[in-house]
Design goal:
Length: 290
């Protein structure tokens, strides 16, 4: 008996390995399993124990963390473990949809376990540092019991008892990120046509995006109140059409793809058609729901 807390980490890709290392550093008895065994063996020198099969990985710790490529793999692994999961807490940190999370939660419950879903807001090198945070949802009693342990890979935030909520937050935040990076890549492509270096643009674009982020609370108030002119219109849709058209025509001229900006070319006229031409950009929200 080591007296150490026990944890299992299933999946030792870039993220799973970082999570396992964080637990080893925090002196947990860490049992690991990975499809390709060499990734598990690499952790032995850091103190990890390697499960001989998936059954042992599920059965030999009270808390099982899963971080693999997708939920189909998660579900297959849960089903491969033929024994019950009575008394176990399964924490799934794999990226997926809310529907997949609900489905996996049911699989775990049917086997007697308690399920917590997580959305990782961090990259592998920041795991175990104060820069990592992880959103959780699902079984709140289970979360409260192991909250201290879950703080090892990243700061925890519980977002609700529906298993799918952490995924919904995660995908929403990733969508915001992809929008921002897409815009940035288009911007540097435009500047690249004048032989300007991406690094030279960095301070200017960071200042600009920071200023734009400050507009988010204003837009949020308008969205929540469904009044897209609340507290004054700052940047009306009719005016924005001109800038978007200019970006498209300059990109065409410079032979730069317009793929990242094109959705705006569809959405702005649609908003005008629906009578939002004199409203803030937040009015686009009202036409996104299918
Ligand atoms: N890396 C990141 O920046 C992001 C940060 C936010 C969260 N994501 C999500 O984390 C999940 C795992 O991502 P990852 O970075 O660890 O991904 P990989 O390094 O590609 O490792 C994939 C692991 O999945 C295992 N795996 C793949 N197919 C199977 C299978 N059929 N059966 C069992 N395991 C499988 C793979 O095993 P192996 O290839 O080493 O044998 C790795 O352990 C993911 O949801 C991200 O979206 C990461």
């Amino acid at each position: 008996m080591s007296g150490k807390k026990k944890i299992t980490v299933i999946g030792l890709g870039a993220m799973g390995s970082a999570i396992a290392k964080a637990f080893l550093k925090s002196n947990f008895e860490t049992l690991v399993w990975n499809r390709s065994e060499e990734k598990a063996h690499k952790l032995i020198s850091e103190g990890a124990k390697v499960a001989s099969d998936i059954q042992e990985a599920f059965q030999n710790s009270p808390v099982i963390i899963i971080c693999v490529l997708n939920y189909n793999i998660v579900d297959t692994l849960i089903k491969k473990n033929e024994k019950k999961l009575d008394g176990k807490i399964v924490v799934n940190l794999t990226n997926g949809t809310p529907e997949q999370a609900e489905n996996t939660s049911n699989l775990v419950s049917e086997r007697g376990g308690r399920y917590i879903d997580g959305g990782i807001l961090a990259i592998p090198p920041s795991i175990g540092t104060r820069h990592a945070s992880i959103l959780y949802s699902g079984n709140i009693e289970a979360f409260q019991e192991i909250k201290e342990d879950l703080n090892v890979p990243g700061q925890t935030q519980f977002v609700g008892t529906s298993a799918g909520l952490a995924s919904l937050y995660d995908l929403s935040l990733l969508s915001a990120m992809y929008g921002m990076f897409g815009g940035y890549l288009h911007a540097v492509s435009l500047l690249g046509s004048a032989k300007l270096k991406a690094m030279d643009f960095t301070p200017i674009v960071i200042d600009w995006l920071t200023a734009m982020m400050n507009a988010i609370p204003h837009l949020a108030k308008q969205i929540d109140s469904k009044d897209y002119s609340l507290n004054g219109v700052v940047s009306n849709i009719g005016m924005n059409i001109t800038s978007v058209d200019n970006i498209i025509s300059a990109s065409d001229h410079l032979k730069i793809s317009t793929d990242f900006i094109m959705p705006w070319k569809m959405l702005l006229p649609k908003a005008i058609e629906l009578g939002h031409g004199d409203k803030d950009l937040s009015a686009i929200y009202s036409i996104l729901k299918k």
